[in-house]
Write a structure and sequence with these properties.
This protein is α+β, with helices and mostly antiparallel strands and 653 residues long. It contains 14 helices and 23 strands. Strand 6 and strand 7 form a beta hairpin. The longest helix is centred in the middle third of the chain and has 36 residues. Centrosomal protein involved in regulation of centriole duplication. Required to limit centriole duplication to once per cell cycle by preventing centriole reduplication.
Length: 653
Amino acid sequence: LKMPFNQQTNMDIHGKIREVLAETVRDDQGPAHRALSEVDFLHALQRRGIIDDVMKDLHFTQVIPTDAETGSPPKPAAHFVDKNITPLKKTNIDPSRRYLYLQVLGGKAFLEHLQEPEPLPGQVCSTFTLYLHFRNQRFRSKPVPCACEPDLKEGFLLEIHRDGSTGEGSKMADTTTMLSLCDPVHLVLIKTDTSSETALVSSYFLDWRTVLSSPSGKTCFAVELMGVGSECKVPAGVLTVSLELYPPLTETLSTDIISTQQSLERQRTAEKERLFLVYAKQWWREFLEIHPSHQSKMVKIFAQDENGVNRPVCSYVRVLRAGRLLESPRQAARFVSLLAQEKAPVVGGGGGKQEQWCTLMAFLCRGKGDCEDHTTLLCSLLLGFGLDAYVCVGTKAKVTPHTWVLTRGTDGSITFWESLTAHRYLHQAIDPDAPPLAPQPKPSSPYRTVGCVFNHQTFLANCQPTDAVELCVFDFQNQSRWKAMSEEALKSVCAPGSTTSLPPLPPLCAPSLDPAAASNQLELEMRYLVSEHRKDLELATVWDDHLSYLLSSALAAYELERCTGVSCGNEEFQDAVRRAVPDGHTFKGFPIHFLHRNARRAFATCLRSPFCEEIVCCRGDHVRLAVRVRVFVYPENACAVWLMFACKYRSVL
């Protein structure tokens, strides 16, 4: 960290320090004549309040390491401001780059919270958190209590860098370049209730380019946030936002130029979308002409996002690389399965499912979503890992609509991936023309029918005589079995940058949770809950710390198996337990897996299992209890929580 002072205070402070030095030396030139130490100087400076002045004037700046090979500053990283760190008000910035300083100056008219009482100090209350994504940078605000006028006040420094493909990436963006950058700032507002459940309040795309026409380089306006899903036409609240460019522009644009650019982009997008719709209708007519029964097949060409916007399904899948955050396709599947499943909320009964395929940003910020959100994310990650991956749309048992991922090996093998569980199934089609007694493969997967498959550049409808998965042959080149859409037509509306209505793709964020601290915290809470529960049953609790420690290796093995499909380390665990449990004693253990870190909820779930209840409430001679918690942390702070209760006691015949 460098500590730049500005020149004026620099001189001033040096002058003051010299005065104090002279004074200290005079005062101490008594008969003892001892050498003055550094501590004496510091005390003297502190007495005069000079150290406080210096500390006030320091702005810390991060020295950016340059890339050793090229000597150029590194590419813009994905930023994620952790809520535990209080950012300094003043930030020193790279003078060779252009920045947009976006300030949220408070919220108002969040009418759903009109009756909300003022939270008492220390009381747990529902909170709002605002998340931002702009050109590969992500930020989040500190959580603030939900209120009609929430105190959302936060500043975010967004870097406006050029697209680096032409070698111009490190030059400062000028006015015309910025006018052509149509990437919006994606704002996602999340509400977290008192039991840590998250809900999506609003998802808004902010066009920041109005700032290019303001003479002061600064502009302030109100942003009306709309609700989501069935409430996407209902205002959720208003944020006051101020935008400022740094360094300020030497020349500003007229408002006409900006509005012309925006309307040109809108026209171009609308025209592309209109042409695609004309093409899709024609394609669908041809598909129905093949066989009238195709009308009932699950062929999904468009899907609605959280804002009620209809988009081609192919636009929900992108090639997504996770940098160093995920190591393999199977680990990616494990990560996706740890994001909780929750159907889009719908008001009223009738069993109608509110359709909502979320933008990736909204899904990640909320940390949970429906099966389609999981499937499109898993397909995007598998494409990033270089696999030939597709989303399948069809049904599972009981004719429930469902989506899952399919990958095709170079040898023609077909693997299904269930995005909600990370289970994989090898698909082998039954041959309907085989003689009656010939052995046929048993269907291994839970999927019943498949209507269409798609990825970021392909859309194929199933035109085989039956859409049953067990009879389906996935040879996509065969036009008599699969009717393909034109890749050109899809590219015109689904390729990144093809239309301005496509939401930009956010990067995944590294976890900010400390797994060891989270594991310890939860384990202490579990110990407390077990002791209290036993106290109610008038049982004493004696913990065996050594036995608790031994359970770690089992929990690590369980998670490894979920990630890789390979189980290992069980022999050592069993051997260690045998050594720790003396002759004539009985050992019982109960492992369980959660996606949350709420101790009371977890304990209540555990007690519903008779095996676990038997351990927690164990009575007998020489009873020793053990509990071990291990939190495995993945990108986006997704957690796999493993918990194991165990006991040992003397067996009485």
